[in-house]
Amino acid sequence: MRLLLVWLINAAALFALPYLMSSIKVDSIVSALIAALVLGLVNTFIRPVLVLLTLPATLLTLGLFIFVINGLLFWFVGSFIEGFHVAGFWSAVAGAILYSIISWALSAMLLPKKA
User: Fold this and answer.
1) Radius of gyration of the chain (CA)
2) Quick count: other Cβ atoms within 10 Å of Cβ 108?
3) Domain segments of the chain: what residues?
4) Which of 9, 34, 63, 86 could form a disulfide with 78 if both were Cys (CB 3.0 to 4.6 A apart)?
5) Sign of the torsion angle spanned by Cα atoms 75, 77, 79, 83
6) Which letter does DSSP use for residue 64 in this model?
7) If pLDDT is split at 50, 70 and 90, which confidence band does 115 have?
């Protein structure tokens, strides 16, 4: 049940993102649900491998390269999900940051605390 609620919260955060950034477009709630699912899967399976492979660059930049990885993955998902459009790389980096902030805030408000 909690996983479904987290997925819905992430879809809501993704659906709210175009109201804050004009360079990101989400056509419908269905597109937001699919994009949130794909973003979750990409962040679960592909992101750890990329973080491990780019560890020297991440250490050299004191962790700032993680923003580049997040932006590239956000842009990647936007490039092949129908109805979810990201204008460019820097829009993807800013969108990934805003997406995580909105998702975190909604999760803090809506999800019950673990005991």
Assistant:
1) 14
2) 9
3) 2-110
4) 86
5) negative
6) T
7) low
Instruction: Return the H-helix or E-strand segment holding 68.
Output: helix 65-80
Q: How confident is the model at residue 114 (pLDDT cuts 50, 70, 90)?
A: confident
Instruction: Cite the beta strand spans of the chain per DSSP E.
Output: 24-26, 84-86
Whether this model's pTM surpasses 0.85: yes
Q: Which of 91, 94, 102 is nearest to 32 (CA)?
A: 102
Residue whose pair of structure tokens reads 């804050």 in the numeric block? 20
pLDDT in tens, 33-70: 999 999 999 999 999 999 999 999 999 999 999 999 99
> Which tokens in the block code for residue 4?
């479904």
Asked if 110 and 5 count as a contact pair (C-beta separation under 8 A), the reply is yes
Give CA 82 to chain center in angstroms: 16
Report DSSP state, residue 19: G
For residues 58 and 94, give the distance between their C-alpha atoms in angstroms, rounded to a whole number. 18
